[in-house]
Amino acid sequence: MNPSLVPTAEPVSRLIEEFNKLPGIGPKTAQRLTYHLLRMPENQARLLAEAILEVKQKIVLCPICFNITEQEPCIICRNQERDVTRICVVEEPLDVLAVERTRGYRGLYHVLHGVISPMDGIGPEDLRIKELLARLDNDVVQEVILATNPNLEGEATAMYVRRLVGGSGIRVTRLARGLPVGGDLEYADEVTLTRALEGRQEI
Q1: Three-class SS of residue 86?
Q2: HSE-CB for 81 with a 13 A CA cutoff
Q3: For residue range 11-23, what is the model confidence (pLDDT) as tens digits?
Q4: Which residue from 9, 58, 144, 177 puts its CA 20 to 30 A from 99's CA?
Q5: Where are the domains of the chain?
Q6: Per-residue pLDDT at 119 exceeds 60
């Protein structure tokens, strides 16, 4: 019997439905999570609910790099020991964490919040590209490191940014191919990502 056809209480069905909307969560996983929550002590469930609400209420985007933060600007943009002549351009906030784990990069970041994907109706105007260009108009930045994921959309986005920055006198590099094609930056191990940073190339 199809699990979705089994009658359940309305609050349970609603929670399954909401879990199912999350990325990577299918119907069966949504059901498992829901029934796990049903067995969870009420105080633990309340802590989880409060943590979700706190994230929505307190977390904002840094007005400079557009990483997620609790304080404006974010801790990286506030850090006077960072190399302000380099900006590493990534797709998502999770990618900032991945690069930071390598401890091999001390520059700044810029989070695009996605990639160009015509199939999904996402164009350059839907990303934080305009804000990136504004940051480069200060005669301070000497290098832009394009660290989008090595897949079709990531490559297209990197080449689009490269065309916009080209001719400005700013060096534009791309992470070396130590990263697997089709993979996601956030899943790369620290050694692979460090080598990719060290082997970045002009594009």
Answers
A1: strand
A2: 3
A3: 999 999 999 999 9
A4: 58
A5: 3-58, 62-202
A6: yes
